[in-house]
Amino acid sequence: MSSYLKVSGTNVVNGDGKEVILRGAGLGGWMNMENFISGYPGCEFQIRAALAEVVGPVKSEFFFDKFLEYFFQEEDAKFFKSLGLNCIRLPFNYRHFEDDMNPRVLKEEGFKHLDRVIDLCAQQGIYTILDLHAAAGGQNTDWHCDAGTHIANFWIHKDFQDRTIWLWKELAKHYVNNKWIAGYNPLNEPTDPTHTTVVNFYDQLYDAIRSVDTEHVIFFDGNTFASDFSHFGDIHKKWQNTAYSIHDYSVYGFPASPEDYVSSDEQRRRMKRSYERKREWMDQRGLCVWNGEWGPVYARKQYDGLATDAINERRYKVLKDQLTVYNEDRLSWSIWLYKDIGFQGMVYVSQETPYMALLKDFLAKKHRLAVDAWGADTSHVQHIYQPLVDHITKEIPEENQDLYPFPVWKLSHRVGRLSRSILVAEYLVKEWAEHFRGKSEVELDEIAKSFKFKNCLHRDGLNKILTDSAQLAAKQ
């Protein structure tokens, strides 16, 4: 690789000034594990502590290290490249590089797997984008920032912000000369209730990274889960070689869809308008847009039975219609996600593997209790929580019911997040860990191997759509 990628106007270009459209996926559930991706309740820090208590810290560390090793290997990179895709977004957790009880002391071992996967991708001609998905203190209100709370404390504690700036300087020092890294995505899905603190923080972060690395593209997420740039004003005039990231999930691709998606004119219009609103600030100023996350979730036969195929065909329609819009705009994108246990991944762990067999009944219970917020099916438990929703609606004045991050979180979503995804999930953490009690290192290794590429099934319908779209765009 002879040159860095750069931002030129609305495009990403190579050293010859030729447009490069980045098309790929996020490696979610890997260096930032997530409950619905990896098959556990609650947050990563909770299950790591619980497993260490059950099997001991040595075996626990062994298991998680093997998990990281097997989750993405050369076979994964070759398969990804074979689909005609050229970029992987690499989400990671700050805890790999810094301990809360030993802040601002770099853990060099954190680079072990990140370096390995960046190099594997480079060998296949695949760019990578580094995504700090979980920052100290929690930069958003959801489980995936691994904070265990619905309060984004990152925005009310300066030290959390300062530690993140410190970490990005260390990361930039380490990767400044790597031209296969397309750029840095410094903070995933911020939810700053003031809407302006995030802009000031980005400005400080930009200066810190640029003091070390003037070459790599910086991809800044919009506020409120990468959907809102309305308070960014003219800050872009201070920044060079910068792109702006939206996350373009459509409600039509989820169980909570208000109606079956049939690709009607009105449905396509609504979906396109939602996308256009997210990128409006950039379009008004002629700035570069990157869609850092998008994509439907999929039905599973063990939960959705005979309706599975019909549901998934509708989800594929959503996927195709989104790609049609993206191709018209020559948009760079990263679908969510590459690998999981069967809900959204391009490849997913087989039900016949040791991990899935071990946790089969527990995962069914977790699904029935709807403790994962992402794409939750609440049909089995809504009657339990609806009285609480009704109680709050009755007792709290209407003008006080829309708490940020409304409207992304409506009142019912907030009740679900707090009661199911935090409270009930917390009580399930030990139950998850107990499945591993008494396991030897050999057995733990076999369980971790469940996530190897050879032990995964392929979501062929999804992958063909992505490949066809990439090939079509390449001809344009």
Which helices and strands, and how do they pair?
Layout: E1 6-8, E2 11-13, E3 23-26, H1 35-38, H2 44-55, H3 57-71, H4 74-82, E4 87-93, H5 111-123, E5 127-134, H6 158-175, E6 181-185, H7 197-210, E7 217-221, H8 223-226, E8 242-247, H9 265-278, H10 280-285, E9 289-293, H11 301-304, H12 308-328, E10 332-335, E11 339-340, E12 347-349, H13 354-358, H14 360-369, H15 382-395, H16 411-434, H17 441-448, E13 456-458, H18 460-475
Parallel strand pairs: 3-4, 3-10, 4-5, 5-6, 6-7, 7-8, 8-9, 9-10, 11-12
Antiparallel strand pairs: 1-2, 12-13
Helix pairs in contact: 2-3, 2-16, 3-17, 6-7, 12-18, 15-16
Describe the structure.
- By secondary structure, the chain is an alpha/beta fold.
- The chain is 44% helix and 12% strand.
- The protein is built from 18 helices and 13 strands.
- The strands form three sheets. The chain has an eight-stranded parallel β-barrel.
- Helix 6 packs parallel to helix 7.
- The longest helix has 24 residues.
- The model has no long low-confidence stretch (mean pLDDT 97).
